[in-house]
């Protein structure tokens, strides 16, 4: 259970917080989203094992989001909905949901269903690491090894370097990095510069002339995959499914 990451997509802030608290008390790691836009950003960063979602969201159709999730990561999906008619349940399951829980519901039943889903799918407990040349990212322990040396990173720095690797060498703007690395943060995009500078001091041979995390003029930053690839090549080394990261914003 310790490596199980759950994303809650729920427009009601009170219910969202309540579910998150109970799941955390049960030992799960939880990320929250209030609408479809934030949900997609968080999903791409976190790659959760289980998505618990409402279908009636402020900025779109939850069933369409359910289909979108299935196309990109195939996580387990539990739908929470006040719509209790048989056609609604069927529509949710056909959209890709693995379970459909009608509101209102008891917390014990909710937690039992979550446990049953996570127990049913063995892939959710598999640890994962990613390797790009000299850079190794342990998604379970949230540790980074560069040139065989473990690097002491803050949670923000870890999320930042993970997002840069996911872009596979493409440049990302400061605003994109801010949204993807710390989706729940409200901050100045220039804060990204501070974290990049700190990260460079830890992994660059010469931080004044960075070769790993490059500045792309008028755009933002990119991870120099070619530089990392110079010896071993960018190859994901998977000990399981890539879905164990918990983004910290």
Characterization of this structure:
There is one protein chain. By secondary structure, this protein is α/β, with parallel strands linked by helices. 38% of the residues lie in helices and 22% in strands. The chain contains 9 helices and 15 strands. The chain has a 5-stranded parallel β-sheet with strand order 2-1-3-6-7, with helices on both faces. A 5-stranded antiparallel β-sheet has the order 11-10-9-8-15. The protein has a 3-stranded antiparallel β-sheet with strand order 12-14-13. It is elongated and about 60 Å long. The two termini are 22 Å apart. InterPro entries: CheY-like_superfamily, OmpR/PhoB-type_DNA-bd, Sig_transdc_resp-reg_C-effctor, Sig_transdc_resp-reg_receiver, WalR-like, WH-like_DNA-bd_sf.
